[in-house]
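User: Please predict structures.

Assistant: First:
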Amino acid sequence: MLRTPDMPIEQIEEHLVQQLCDALSGYLEQRQVEECVRAYHFGAKAHAGQVRKTGEAYICHPIAVALSLAEMRMDANGIMAAILHDVVEDTTVTKKELATHFNQEVAELVDGVTKLSKIDSKSHAEAQAENVRKMFLAMGKDLRVIMVKLADRLHNMQTLGVMSPEKKRRIARETLDIYAPIANRLGMNSIRHKLETLSFEAMYPRRYVILKDAVKKKRGNRGEVVDTILASLNNRLQESGLQCEVSGRQKHLWSIYQKMHCKKISLSAVFDVYAFRVFCDNIDACYRVLGIVHNLYKPVPGRFKDYIALPKANGYQSLHTILIGPHGLGIEIQIRTHDMHRMAESGIAAHWLYKTDDDKTEKFKVSANEWLKDLLELQKSAGDSLEFIDNLKVDLFPQEVFIFTPKGGIVKLPRGATVVDFAYAVHTDIGNACVSARIDKQLVPLQSTLENGMTVEVITAVWARPNPLWLNYVITAKARSSIRNYLKHFKQQEAISLGQRLLEKELQSMNVYLDQIEPKRLQSYLKIIELPSLDALLENIGLGNKMPFLVAKQLTQDDVHAHVKLNTTEPMQSVPLFIKGTEGMVITLAKCCRPIPGDAIIGFFNPGKGIVVHHHECRNQSVLRTKQANWLDIEWSETIVGDFPTELRLELLNQRGALATVASTISEADSNIENVHVVDQDERVCVDLIILTVKDRVHLAHIMRRLKELTIVLKITRTKA
């Protein structure tokens, strides 16, 4: 694929084109090969004059990418897209021209791989995140997009030599964070290992060389032991009459380095385990081989994994077992069929590579498409590209546990997943409404971590809704994204509802009702203030970004009689806004004075957040009142239910058990203490600030009377600022 070191630069392009034609002729029709050559001439003309940092003509890079895909037997349109994948980004050629010269399918594939141009981003990270997000949108339509992108990234990694060390490290880190895990998730282990090894070399060149030399030496010293174990395995399999192939498994440098780094172990500890693979003709033979090797060497308890019955999320299938071999040496054996091995190495590429294996590759393609569908749902609800990348990284690094539903279904989740993650994995609506769960018929809280083989039954309630605190312990991308999306939408709905009440209150004071305003008048006003809909206007009002009084005046100011049908039977009046204090995120009770039902209150707009409610006697309200346009009259609703925090200042005799007596009295009065702060203390007196919950002023008065009856209480006052 790459040129030999002594090949002149001017011959590289010709050499690569010849290699590509030879590879394509092996599986494409002559007419299709000619179309690919035409794409090469088109690309060469478009990239004329452009040179890579290696000194080669730029077109050499797209041809090398196409050659990689030809080795996977990619179809003609995929090969043409690979050859042309940079023309839209780096030349004046447009997507429309590609569709005209070739076909719409090629144009769409090229567009999917092309980076976004002119991204208005604050950082390189945001720009890269937006490009990855766009790529996944295109992948949802056609999996060949990621095939081209992975081959593109592989060739870029193979030609990093001329880059600066800093740029090498940045590209390598990006490859390890995004592209190698994507290859792994799509089952393409061969490309994944190449990307990881090249990234390791680029990020830590000295460590790479030292480890490579040490591993080479270790493998040479282990030859005799490996031969002994291989001979034992082959002899026992021949005695059983099974036709199997046994080979040593080479550990890749990056995985060796990761194991040493994460587990803090030496290279000799890594090489204490001898790894082998056994390839069988069918699944039945795999399980028979498992019994044979367990009979030959003793298995290590708890170290057997059956990925044939329960495949990994990327479709990987194999039996894994750890044995104690001769001289106490550890032996790791993977047992799989030849088809499973091809799928493990090629993954989604097997769809093009092994055309005869239609059932298995089609099943794998469906699995990959389901994963992409889930990712597309995530990107719709993600707030921005960086959030989408965070969700993607979570999804790309799973170590699965298998959880059973009450009906016997199996749900795959990452290790460390909680009940909430399970609920969202079953269905978003179940996640949104979950309140608790039963694990193996035992009631458990939602933050409980799940283990392999558990049976989980989620308990839901119609009144339940996602709690922001869930974000502290959920680990799956779907759960995190769904919770964020619900909370974002819920706040929006609250803001719209509050905005409508505020606007209607102001309109009523003008003897006008919102539904009486003519649609043309309303649309004209929305156009002037550049908002798309009435809901957007109400949301802005509810969040305090627009003043309801000014909006009401602007909607009715010109010729009120021409635009609004007045209800002349009702007198002009100022109607206060009634609140319950439990509206949620758009109405906040001020912490400086902690108003409770029964208090005289006043509301102030806090732009972007909504209304902040203060006590009329709050010392801050005199300052806020100077902003005449930012405050409004509000009152407590008559249908108030709930507990509200308030603060008491207590002067107590400083004696043992005083605080416990106070806490007991408050509890007996049907209240709960949220916080206690000792302000001052000497030998005789202790001054405490206590935040407790009450239902209203009557409830608070009852609690204060009970406290005054205590001999240890010298003075009690409610703090209002």
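Second:
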Amino acid sequence: MTGQESYDVVVVGGGGSGAPLAARLSEDAGRRVLLLEAGPAPVCAAGFPAELLEAGTIRGADPAHPQNWAFDSHLTPTRPYSVARGRILGGSTTTNGGYFVRARRADLDDWAASGNEQWGWAECLPFWRALESDEQFGPDALHGDSGPMPVSRVLPGHPVTAAFSAASAQAGFRAEPDKNGDETEGHGPLPMNVRDGVRWNTGLAYLLPALGRPNLEVRGGSTVRRVLFTGTLAVGVEFADQAGAVHAVRAREVVLAAGAVLSPQLLLVSGVGPRAELERLGIEVVADSPGVGAGFSDHPQVQLAWRPRPGVPLGAAEGRAMESALNATVALDDPGGRGLLAPPAHGRSDRGEHAGRPHPHAVGRGGELLAEVEVLPMLKPMGTLLSGRDEPGAPLVFLVAVQNPGSRGRIRLTSADPAARPAIDYDYLASPADRARMRAAVRLAARVAEAPAFAEVSTGLELDAAVRADDDALDAWVAATLGTALHLSGSARMGPDDDPGAVVDQWGRVRGVSGLRVADTSILPAVPRRGPAATAVLVGERIAAFLRAE
């Protein structure tokens, strides 16, 4: 091991949270900040691969792309899946679809009510406003116009978008013109971190403008292997460079912002986690923390394919892959719900609604089971989005996701070797409730797709109506085609002192040790009801503000 450089703060990971965190911390000239990023760390916009800036594709999500971590996982015991996470400056904000929707007010207030008072809507709103430059709504009481992250919507939109909005209204859903506002859910334009066809990642928005500061150092190709401790005090990190040489750096404060897969893995290999698991692998226990890697949540998702009519264009303004979304809540025991809460098939076991805390929006005030659903109409075939190549005749899809899943997953070490990939088990569809939610989501999307307005652009859904109407057949289709929205959250969640599963406090400080924090979607108590990219940026901003205040 070589090197014993010393910094005030070492930030591990330059993604959706880490880039804002490091940039904000370096605004204080007296604080020396080192950011270690495992992937490339371009010093200018031209240094990013062109396909990762192009808003009209998601080529970085291809498992073969070199800037994709592509973690092996299981969504169910029989459904393997590759989990895409960005491995470049900007992290997954560089490789995702550009969706930039805030967590709902109810999400934040639920987190505050569970003992994280710093994360309520009123406390976070100034940071939402400060991080964005909203082209349609800023500046006003809810939005900003001078922050690093551009936020824009396309109006009036693509013919598919117009038909989808009209069909959503015909299906009985209200309009939601501002999905980053404080309004009732419905259908409306999708806020995206896109400007002039470019996907603005947090590297572009936050770090590149800060690179001239003498107190900020950014190193790409630096894979952190573990946190270094003296007793229970974090004193630095060990990392490997691109040549495989191992180095150590010292720091007064270490902040893990490596994402909701790698941050818990780093805690575990460093000796912070469930005692029995660590001892089984021969890892010295620094702090017994049973919540590390446990109880994460994500949005289970399927692709509902449909055929566009001849002449319907593919792609949209600025080459965007999507422009709008429908968010809606269904009560599953509603008598008009077409059997959405039918009893499970014979022989199924119900392992319970979740393996941890329930999602705060799983049950309505009257005790009815709820399905919160998001439907995203994609404007290009999925194969085109992943490869950039045209696919004449290929169907388009709705991405249909449950936003309040009951299932909870776990991340476990497979080895004490820091280079070994972890095991990731989502435990989707384990309960009858989550199977009912997925049926409700598909049927809700089909209801919109079969509204008269959508027939102007569509020749119909590929999933047969008879399958959609039969609970067992639909369950089988979902199980065979299931994906995930790649919104993994809560793998090292925050909570109050009396919460035994909480890994960090509301300031991001890891319990049982000192000098160590986590700052990414790992710490969220549950996956937000909207995709978490914007919330990841909020986390970076908030943890930076906590550190600066101290």
